[in-house]
Amino acid sequence: VLALLAACASDTPLQADTAPLPRWTVTEEETGLASADATPLPDEVSDVPIIIGGGPAGLALAGELGRALVLEADAVVGGRARWAGGFLFLVGTPEQAAAGIADDEAVALADWEALTGAQPTDATRAFLAANADVRARVVDLGIPLSLGRTDPVTGRIREHSPAGGGQGLVDALVGALGEEVELRVSTPVRGLVLRDGRAAGVYTDHGWIAADNVIIATGGFVDRADLVELHSGWAAGEWRLGDPTLANGDALDWAESAGLGTASLGAIGAYRDLLGFAGPDGQALQVNTGGAPPWIWVDADGARFVNESATWSVTLSRLAGARSNVWAITTLEAVTGAVSPEGRPFLVEGEAFHCAADLASLADTLGVDPAGLEATVLSVGTYAERLALDPLGRPGPTFAPLFGTPCAFRPGYVAAKNFGGLSVDADGRALDTSGAVIPGLWAVGEAAGMGSPGLGGTWGFDGSLAAVLWSGWRTGAAIAEEQAASGG
Ligand SMILES: Cc1cc2nc3c(=O)[nH]c(=O)nc-3n(C[C@H](O)[C@H](O)[C@H](O)COP(=O)(O)OP(=O)(O)OC[C@H]3O[C@@H](n4cnc5c(N)ncnc54)[C@H](O)[C@@H]3O)c2cc1C
Fold first, then answer.
1. Counting atoms of ligand 1 from 1, which one is nearest the CA of 467?
2. Which has more pLDDT, 194 or 261?
C-alpha cells in the first residue's frame, strides 16, 4: 500500500502519473467523476478489506473476516435476500434423514445434469462437499431449518427453509458481525481503482477509498433487461422480481471497463409462474394460485407433466422449457377472482391468454391435442372429488374441478438469478480476461455466478443461497489466510 500511495503522491492528475495506465485501470472519467475533481491521493485509507455490497454474500464474508468495511448502495443491508424465502439447497442433512429421504453428495452429483442442464464443475463439487458445513453454520447462527418443497425434476426435497426466511438469515448474519466490521449504507461504489496490476481501492461519491483487498459482492444482473436479453437470448425485460434496483449488473459494467473475465453469462435461473401478462410499469402481475385453484399445466399432448403446486421454481422452468407448447389451463371465473382489481384492465386476450366456449375450441386455439386435454381435465375432476393421490405428487385436496369457461395462460418467465458472472479461481480471486489473477481483487455471491460461474449448470437450481453463503465464507477464509501469511 505504501508503495502505491507513494506512487500516487504527486500534484499531477491520476491519469498522468503513470503513463500509460494499465489496460484495465478504471479511470475517474469512467466512474462518472469529473477529471477536474480527480485527486492522486486517496480521500480515505482503509486498513481492512472493502466489501462492495451488503447482501448475504458480502455479510457472510464480513463475518468470516471479522474486520471489514462494507459499502452498501442501499439504505439497508441484506440485498435481495430481504425478499427471498431464503430456501437453501442442502444435501445429506439431518432434516432429510428424519423425513426418510436418502440423499448425499454422490446422489446430488448423479442428479446434477437432470437438475441443472449441465455436468457438475469442480466448483459444484467443492460446494457440495462444503454442504454439511454450510448447514452447520446456518444452524449455529441460531436459525432452525425445516424441509421445503419437492424438486419437480428429481422428486427429492433438498430445499431447506430457514426460520424467518431470507430476512431472518440477513438478521442473523448481521447479528454475528464483530465490532470491527463497519456497515456503511447509502454508499454506492462507482468504480474500482486498479493500479499497477492489482486492486487499490474503490471510488464512491465521496472520493477514492484505498484498500489492499477489494471484494465485489454486488449481486447479479437480472434486473438489467438489456443484459438479460443480451446473454440469455430471451426477452425477459417485461417481468422482474423484487426490487428493480438491486441486481443492477454493476459487476459486469466494471468487468467491461476493467477487462475482468466473465463466464456462463447465459446461465440465468428463471421462475415459471402463472404470469400471462405484464402489468403496470412492466411489473409482472401474478395470479394468486393459493388455496385449491383450478389450474393445471399441460403440454402439446394435452397431458399434465408436473406437480403444479411447485410452480415457483427454477428447476420447474427446466422441465417446462424442455416442452415446446406449455399452457396453464384454468377457467375465466377463477382468473377473474384471482387477479386484483387493478390488474384486471391488463387481462386481455392475446398471445398469452385465451378463453373459448368449450375445451375442444380452446385446444384448437392453443395447438394442443383436444382428446388429450379432455381426458386430462376429466382426470383432474377425479383427483379433486376423491382426494386421490396424484401420480405427479400434487396433493389431492389442492385440485379443483375445472368447471366454467375454459381459459389458458402461457406460463411466463421471470428472470430470477444469475448463475454466471465474474470469473474467479477456486478461492474467489477475480481473474482478468486472460485468466490471470488480479491480486487483491475478489468476487463472491451472485456477482460471481453464485460463487463460481457455471457451478449451477445451464439453468441453475433452487436454494442457491446456500452457494452464496458458501462463497462468502470460503473467500473470507482465503483472504484471512493471505493476510496471515503476509503478516497483515
Ligand atoms: C423475491 C425473491 C425471492 C428469492 N428467493 C430465494 C430463495 O428462496 N432461495 C434462494 O436461494 N435464492 C432466492 N432469491 C435469490 C437470492 O436472494 C439471491 O441470489 C441472493 O440474495 C444473492 O446474494 P448476493 O449477496 O450475491 O447479492 P444481493 O443479495 O443481490 O446483494 C448485493 C448487494 O450489493 C449492493 N450493491 C450493488 N451494487 C452496488 C454498488 N455499486 N455499491 C455498493 N453496493 C452495491 C446491492 O444494493 C445489494 O444490497 C430470491 C430473490 C428474490 C428477489
1. 11
2. 261
